[in-house]
Specification:
alpha/beta, Rossmann fold, seven-stranded parallel beta sheet, three-stranded mixed beta sheet, 12 helices, binds NADP nicotinamide-adenine-dinucleotide phosphate
Length: about 300
């Protein structure tokens, strides 16, 4: 199949694009600069020049593709509005990358025992309302003859296999701990579901091949509190597993206001449908193992050397 991937130079899109190539697909990737286009070409991905705002090229590329995967900006309604009508009535696959932060709340590092699965209604915080509205619009496109799918990954970790191999959350926590103290927002009792990047890439491939129109999937294989993640970072950096509480206002000043609904929140979901409907069988190493003994340790060692 010929598959258009937006975000093909990014962490998720890059890994998904690589997995698609491995499975024998022809991948076309949106590239917003010549160096980005060159890096895609080098990997066997056909670049198409443009940004998410260049609707003409994007729409032409979508029409010319057998399937489209949007892995660029989960909160951008306009790209979805531009692409979906191009696929209307074709039965082609459209996969929208969303994220499990749609269930996040302002928890300031405290534990919340609320767990979501695909059929649990979500009432998002205002910051996440657009993302949920986009997801709903994508799912509704099934009624217009699009085999539309929404995937909500949780905290993704591990080294990607595409152009950009590094995710955001864990590397940022490691970065701040390099100052000598591993921190978590508040008491760090808040819990995030998580999933290894290679399992995420497998899920996209399965969804492309088998997902029924109008499917929503969470991508999750375990969960961990931010405190246990910080403790693993501390051990990995030789800080003896010691961590410190971090008042949310201070964390947000360093990590940005998004820290409230990421590092300070709970985002606990179960990927029931991916396992049941698609037979998804995630196998990646656990988050805590990956931090202490996996690629993050290697990266840190290389930087130290
Ligand atoms: N990583 C996670 O753990 C995670 C979990 C759940 C959901 N998500 C969501 O999934 C999406 C992708 O995440 P990611 O971690 O893969 O991000 P990323 O590594 O930053 O990649 C973003 C990709 O989108 C492209 N892009 C951004 N703005 C663009 C624009 N205006 N026009 C064209 N291309 C554009 C980037 O291109 P350039 O290379 O040119 O910058 C890059 O290829 C995000 O919306 C994120 O919030 C991420």
């Amino acid at each position: 199949m010929k598959i258009l991937v937006t975000g093909a130079t990014g962490y998720i899109g890059g890994s998904v694009a690589t997995r698609l190539l491995e499975a024998g697909h022809h991948v076309v990737g949106l590239a917003r600069s010549e160096p980005a286009a060159a890096s895609l070409r080098q990997r066997g991905i056909e670049p198409v020049a443009g940004t998410l705002n260049d609707y003409g090229p994007l729409q032409r590329a979508a029409r010319a593709a057998d399937a489209v995967i949007n892995a660029a900006q989960a909160d951008n309604p306009f790209v979805v509005l531009a692409i979906l009508p191009q696929l209307s009535g074709t039965g082609k696959v459209f996969i929208q990358t969303s994220g499990s932060s749609v269930v996040s709340t302002y928890d300031n590092g405290e534990y919340v025992d609320r767990v979501f699965h695909e059929d649990t209604p979500v009432t998002p915080m205002p910051e996440k309302a657009t993302r949920v509205a986009i997801d709903e619009q994508v799912l509704r496109a099934a009624l217009d003859g699009v085999r539309s799918v929404v995937i909500r990954p949780t905290l993704i970790y591990g080294r990607g296999i595409g152009v950009d191999s590094s995710s955001v959350q864990i590397p940022r926590l490691i970065e701040q701990a390099l100052g000598g103290v591993a921190r978590h927002v508040g008491r760090g009792l808040n819990v995030w579901s998580n999933v290894h990047i290679s399992d995420v890439a497998d899920l996209y491939l399965l969804a492309l091949e088998h997902a029924p129109a109008g499917s929503l999937f969470y991508a999750e294989n375990s969960e961990a509190s931010m405190k246990t993640a910080a403790e693993a970072i501390s051990r990995m950096l030789g800080l003896g597993g010691r961590t410190e509480d971090w008042p949310i206002e201070e964390a947000a000043a360093v990590l940005g206001p998004g820290a409230h609904l990421t590092f300070g929140s709970n985002s606990r979901v179960r990927a029931l449908k991916a396992r049941k409907v698609l037979g998804w069988d995630p196998k990646g190493p656990s988050l805590l193992h990956e931090i202490e003994h996996g690629t993050y340790k290697d990266q840190h060692r290389r930087r130290d050397a």
